[in-house]
Amino acid sequence: MKEERLDKLLAAQGIGSRKEIKELVRKGGVVVNGCMAKSADLKIAPDAEVVVQGKPILLKKHLYLMMNKPTGVVSASRGDDCPTVVDLVPPELKRRGLFPAGRLDKDTTGFVLITDDGAFAHDILSPKHHIPKTYIATLDGILTEKVVEAFAGGIPLKNEDRCLPAQLTILDDHTAKVVLHEGMYHQIKRMFAACGLHVDALHRMAMGALPLDENLAEGQCRELTPQELELVQNRDGLK
Ligand code: URA
Q: Which of 4, 52, 189, 224 could form a disulfide with 228 if both were Cys (CB 3.0 to 4.6 A apart)?
């Protein structure tokens, strides 16, 4: 990360608009490497220590959040009359340009990755990369080996190409673990519908080889570590 203007950097961290940051600097509220910043156009290095109104700020180019999405919330940056996953990001983690990397249906719960890094999102969603996503589905009917075989063979969906083979593990009569390597619209619900089953509940429990943190309550999110980001990009999935 190269040197950047102080106001631009702090605005990107969600501290406020550039105008608000200029005002903060003017009032002496920003300290860089132990010295009060005198001007908002000060160029600062990526490893600079920046304190805003007594609070140290961690300068990062991009932010990567794991959220445990509740039902009733849309996977989007803006919703017309519905709360979005981005609305649920707490103020201290909010920054400009956040969006969910991939979509879960409004009634699906679980792991949503929220970021401001478009290239990263493109990479993990690209059909070329086939990053596995693992779901737990609760069905209204009884699961059989026939359904396992149909998923493994690639289910043909109306008006779409045949799905890629998906791994289905029966956990009990009505519950299955499903690993998908692509992300078509309502894909799991449509795959089960093609087998005569209705999905009563769907939960995404992992992206790549990274499971959802069990300590995250619904609606909560936290930053991912660099190691966790690597696990998200792992094509082998959960072990
Ligand atoms: N498949 C679905 O049907 N819905 C989701 O939210 C994710 C995968």
A: 224
Q: For the chain, first and last CA: distance in Å?
A: 34
- Report the number of distinct structural domains present in the chain: 3
Q: Same domain, yes or no, for 145 and 192?
A: yes
12 and 31 in a common domain: yes
Q: Is residue 108 in contact with ligand 1, taking CB distance under 6 Å?
A: yes
Domain end call among 38, 57, 76: 57
Cross-strand pairs, 162: 156
pTM score, two decimals?
Answer: 0.84
- My answer on whether 75 and 122 are in the same domain is yes
Query: Which of 7, 41, 105, 161 is labelled catalytic?
Result: 105
- The finding on whether 188 has its CB within 6 A of some atom of ligand 1 is yes
Contact 209, 147 (CB under 8 A): no
Give 189-238 pLDDT, tens digit per residue: 999 999 999 999 999 999 999 999 999 999 999 999 999 999 999 988 88
Whose Cα sits closest to atom 2 in ligand 1? 186
Mode of pairing for the β-strands spanning 133-139 and 199-207:
antiparallel
Q: What are phi and psi of 238, to 5 degrees?
A: -70, 140
CA-CA distance, 205 to 196, in Å (whole number)?
24
Give the list of residues 6+ apart from residue 4 with CB closer than 8 angstroms, or none: 43, 44, 46
State the CATH number of the domain containing residue 184. 3.30.70.1560
